[in-house]
Amino acid sequence: MTDDTRLPGTAAHHWQWQLRAACRNLGPEPFFHPAGERGEDRDERDEAAKRVCAGCPVRTACLDHALRTRESFGVWGGLTEEERRTLLTRASRRRPEPAGGGVLGAAPRSGDAQAVPLRRGRPR
Question: In the chain, is it the N or the C terminus that has fewer CB atoms within a 10 Å radius of its CB?
Fold first, then answer.
């Protein structure tokens, strides 16, 4: 489950990056697997979602949000939940989470500094 205590707040400037997201008008279906989806069907849906993310101008902010809030489901910033878990596990073995920056300590790109959840219609 998403850790809501890590969300940056409701101020409008926290949400601005979402206006430029490539997935903005696509709905949740490409990014979240339906109950029981497995195998090739899931792999194909994940790959299609990753193609959307690949050209997204706010991919870094989206991924930072997903890592910071521990998004449990879906493709965020071009990574599946399993890929994000692996990334977080590796990062936690190397060093503790930074206090003020992104989860992995990377500086955000210009315009991507405030990552918040994309509202794609699925409850968090």
Answer: N
Structure tokens at 53: 């993310």
Residue bearing tokens 């707040």: 9
Tell me 111's DSSP state: T
Contacts of 85 (CB under 8 A, 6+ apart): none
Residue 76, strand partner residues? 79
Inter-CA distances, 27 with 5, 23, 120, Å: 25, 7, 5
The full 3-state SS of 28-96, as one line of letters, equals CCCCCCCCCCCHHHHHHHHHHHHHHHHCCCCHHHHHHHHHHHCCCCCCECCECHHHHHHHHHHHHHHCC
Q: What predicted TM-score, i.e. pTM, was given to this entire model?
A: 0.68
